[in-house]
Predict the 3D structure of the following.
Amino acid sequence: MIQDLSITREEIDAVDKQIVELIEKRMDLALEVAKFKQSTGKPIYDRERELQKLEKLGSMASTEFNSKIIQELFLQIMSGSRRYQYSVIGDQDHVIDDMFSSVEKLNISKDTKVVYAGVPGAFAEAAMVEYFGEDIEANNVKEFYEVAKLVSEGNADYGVLPIENSSAGFVSGIYDLLERYQLSIVGEQMIQVNQCLLGIPGTDLTAVKTVFSHPQGLMQAKEYLEDKDWKQVSMNNTALSAKKVHDDGDLTQVAIASERAAKLYGLSILNPQLNVSDNNTTRFVIVSNKREYVKSANKVSISFALSHQCGSLYNILAHFIFNNVNMTSIESIPLTGKQWEYCFFVDFEGNLGDDEVRSALKGIMAETDDFRILGCFASEK
């Protein structure tokens, strides 16, 4: 005889009530464990003990299916316990303060040295002028890595690097440079990007054979270029592409660059807008070799490494959820020489002085490898 469904549901409700009461009791006990670990200097996260406990709990089940359910359930319970412990204890050992210091404002004057990659007319130059103004000592180099190197060695106070485009995504290699040269993001500047097709005056589009631009410029104009049999040649930046077309004086060559680049290098605008999107925006970051942030900053960027294991990324990102911190972007890059392991780059809203941010970072720091705060800065929305 099958039991009435309403009776079964009442029994499930009763069991669920007991589970809730027991979880709350377990959280109280977890807090006592955290207090003991804090007094003895032991870390909150003990991965080996967690794995041993999961195996033991799974062995208590009567079936293999139930064993997996119990292990999955307790994995989340233990993960939640740790987040609770981090939030209650907070950053009492001032780890964040040891990493970064806060300032009222960045030190910018007429003697400030700022470097960008490209030539006059590059979008990076526009971002530099928009952020710093004209009254600084501006320098330009060919490659992004040169920007990072000069700032890292103290030969420039700040660098300007493109990191993301609204149409084409993240700029390849920039996060690697931040890691390699140990740079901090101290600012952000958005630039509206309108990609134009430029050529020597008198250029006939039917005779064009080659188009030059930065890979991002080519990607942003991909729909326009789809029906063209032109050879696409990547350059270090868009303005340099315009300069090359000007210098070569070849009517079979065109460049994808800005309207300003056309004026600077005496080129004709053959098509005023190649963007796939009307709202094509590139996000530039301002980098420094100093570990500092302005007190009014409202965005944090971090990086960390994770092995390719089921649920590992979820457990890390849950630190944002439990601390009510809003994540704005995430990017992953395979780790060199480590198969199926990745470095993640995450941006989220907040300030390094916020208790919720510190709680989230303490948890992430303890449960990942190669953790690094890339910067805290004022975000342009």
Remarks:
- The chain has a mean pLDDT of 91.
- Residues 5-40 form the longest helix (36 residues).
- Residues 196-271 form a domain with the D-Maltodextrin-Binding Protein; domain 2 fold (CATH 3.40.190.10).
- The CA atoms of residues 197 and 270 lie 5 Å apart.
